[in-house]
Design brief:
With about 325 residues, the chain is of the alpha/beta class. It is about 35% helix and about 20% strand. It is built from 13 helices and 13 strands. The strands form two sheets. It has a seven-stranded parallel sheet with strand order 3-2-1-4-5-6-7, with helices on both faces. The protein has a six-stranded parallel sheet with strand order 10-9-8-11-12-13, sandwiched between helices. The two termini are about 15 Å apart.
């Protein structure tokens, strides 16, 4: 008997870490419905799998759905956890499985998600088949409530578990001048705005880690204080974080923001936009980071100038050094036990 079967698309490293920790306490089965994505580093999918799992990504069309339903039919389980509501496999499972067993993971936030019109109506129909929602944080809970969800809501305060490393010891800094962005180079990440801001601050350096469809255009508008490093393997990211002083995530929409947790683990305060999903969960203004308002023209620039104050910056770093990342991860795991 499985404690739960978890239906998700791809085996991302942070989900593998979460499943491994849950499997230390409960017997689980994870079903991966898709192959790996070409939009990610190859090691995005690297990690141990100390749990039962099945991949049906090599099946296509109706055959994938049939395979999924067969797996559910031959196995005994207490709960079926569905990672969202955006594929036909998730819909088939939700409607052919007993409602009392159905759970959903909601990682999309109220900021970027549609709750009205036809799309909102379809999501409401799906949620009527769900008894328990595992939501990442307040922005995700607000989405569930906006869609009329009436069941049990559990706040996990995470979308998975990043590769936790031993954090650096606090070391006071007198000069804060190196900033880092980690993520895809795509429109929703708002990097044109980020670059234009740093173009006005030539005495500060911005290091950009990642790749994506806007790379060529972004390079064409960036001045010499902005350096593009391309794709970096996850195992090498701590080195890059620790060569910098502050992480910036200026997204127009960001369901959660796992890189913020990675930055904290490597001793960095953060600056994020008010549209980042985890901003109200893990960022304490002036204690471990700053939140800027996308509707205010100079809000990002002001936040950057503010965090270069060594007194404020070092106080943030002291607070971050006190964070217990394994305890935070354990709290997320407990939500599923």
């Amino acid at each position: 008997m499985y404690h739960f079967i978890y239906l998700t698309n791809i085996p991302s490293f942070y989900k593998l870490n979460l499943f491994n920790r849950i499997a230390e306490h409960k017997k689980i089965l994870v079903i991966f419905t898709e192959q790996t994505s070409i939009e990610r580093n190859s090691d995005f999918y690297t990690g141990e799998r100390n749990f039962d799992y099945i991949s049906i990504g090599n099946y296509v069309g109706i055959f994938k759905t049939i395979k999924l339903l067969f797996i559910l039919l031959i196995n005994s389980y207490n709960k079926l956890i569905l990672a969202g509501f955006d594929s036909k496999e998730l819909w088939a499972a939700a409607f052919l499985n007993p409602k009392r067993k159905n759970c959903i993971v909601i990682e999309s936030s109220i900021f970027e998600s549609t709750t009205l019109g036809l799309k909102g109506y379809i999501k409401r129909i799906f949620l009527k088949r769900i008894t328990t929602a595992y939501v990442s944080g307040k922005a995700q809970k607000d989405l569930a409530l906006a869609l009329g969800f009436k069941g049990i809501i559990k706040i996990t305060k995470g979308v998975g578990i990043f590769n936790i490393t031993d954090p650096p010891k606090f070391k006071e800094k007198n000069e804060i001048k190196n900033f880092i962005y980690v993520g895809r180079l795509s429109k929703e990440k708002n990097l044109k705005y980020l670059i234009s801001t740093f173009n006005e601050l030539p005495y500060l350096q911005l290091n950009i880690i990642g790749f994506g469809p806007e790379e060529k255009e972004l390079k064409s508008i960036a001045k010499r204080n902005i350096v593009f490093h391309g794709a970096i393997d996850n195992i090498k990211l701590p080195t890059f974080y620790r060569l910098n002083d502050v992480l910036i995530l200026p997204s127009l929409s960001e369901p959660w923001g796992l890189v913020i947790e990675e930055a904290f683990n490597n001793g960095l305060p953060v600056i994020v936009s008010n549209m980042v999903g985890c901003s109200s969960e893990i960022i304490e203004i002036n204690k471990n980071g700053l939140i800027f308002n996308l509707t205010e023209t100079d809000s990002l620039k002001n936040a950057i100038l503010m965090i270069t104050d060594s007194s404020l910056y070092n106080n943030m770093c002291r607070n971050i050094c006190e964070m217990d990342f394994n305890e935070i991860a354990n709290l997320q795991v407990e939500c599923y036990l």
